[in-house]
Amino acid sequence: MNADESSAALRAIWGSAAPAWGTHAEYVDTRGAEVAQAMIAAASLKEGDCVLELACGPGGVGIAAAPIVGHDGAVVLSDFVPEMTAIAAERAAAAGLPNVTTREVDIERIDYPDEAFDVVLCREGLMLVSDPLSAAREALRILRPPGRAVFTVWGPRDRNPWLGALFDAITAQLGVPVPPPGLPGPFSLEADGALGDLLESAGFADVSVVEIPTPMHARSLDEWWSVVPSLAGPVAQLLASLPAEVSASIRTRAEEAMADFASSDGYELPGVSYLGVGTR
Question: What is the gyration radius of the CA atoms in the chain, in angstroms?
């Protein structure tokens, strides 16, 4: 795919996945609470800051930041599909946050002038774009010195079996790679040092990267199957297109792969994220 084709495909994929993200928004926030807290701490937020959350999905990180920056500050929840920003806007309104607005923004071509924000936050979005270096450079451009950007991405696939088991099961059943060629995937920045190198290449100063445990507890295979595939963008679209018996076979393969993580009350699935921070 060329850049325009890839962008159009990603918009379609994540637009179709948005309803599931709305349904499971509270779950996403609960599971991602430790990551969100670490991001906010790394951002050194203060009263009056102007914050942009990129690839916000249901907006959990920006919504958590809003009370900290207060009435004199502002938070923009942005995503490149309007279906996601609509969910984020509804959640911010329900939380009674007048300092929060939403906007459709392409992370690779951010439609804001230079030095427009004090802080940029992006949870699990940088690894899902076609050109993460361009996205990081754009985040740097819109920061006013000494602004800070905080990104998180998923760590190595073999240390995230809560999702890797699903990908492996699909590949084993269908004989196709996940994600498909030409589309970025959740483990595109899994290599040791990849996130830090990317931020330094984009021009950020004082770059640091830390590892955050992100385990997943699922009370049953049914619970895991109802949440993880539906949030997985391209995978959700693929599974929806398959005959029921093929999807059932994929589920069985995933269950077999997850057997080592079974516990007395479901599954205890390991997970790890990388948090990277840089300043302008």
Answer: 18
**What are the residues whose beta carbons fall under 8 Å from the beta carbon of 117, sequence distance 6 or more?**
50, 51, 52, 76, 142, 143, 144, 147
Distance CA 31, CA 53 (A): 18
DSSP 8-state code for residue 260: G
Residue 46 tokens, joined: 């203060």
The residues, any chain, with a CB within 8 Å of residue 131's CB and separated by 6 or more, are 3, 108
Q: How far is CA 32 from the centre of its chain?
A: 10
Name the phi and psi angles at 182, rounded to 5. 95, -10
Q: Which of 207, 81, 183 is nearest to 131 (CA)?
A: 183
Task: For residue 158, give every residue at least 6 positions away whose Cβ sits within 8 Å of its Cβ, in sequence order, or none.
Answer: 164
- What are the tokens at 67? 């009370």
Q: State how far the Cα of 37 lies from the Cα of 69, in Å rounded to an integer.
A: 14
Side-chain half-sphere of 9: how many Cα atoms within 13 Å? Answer: 17
d(CA 169, CA 175): 10
Domains of the chain: 3-156+185-217+270-279 (3.40.50.150)
Q: What is the pLDDT of residue 1?
A: 62
- Predicted confidence at residue 133, as pLDDT, reads 97
d(CA 205, CA 203) in angstroms, rounded, equals 7
**Hey, what amino acid is at 141?**
R
What end-to-end distance do the CA atoms of the chain give, in Å? Answer: 33
Spatial neighbors of 18 by CB under 8 A, at least 6 apart, are: 81, 83, 84, 86, 87
- Between strands 272-279 and 262-263, the pairing is unpaired
- Confidence (pLDDT) at 183: 76
**CB of 77 within 8 A of CB of 51?**
no
| pLDDT, average across residues 244-266 | 96
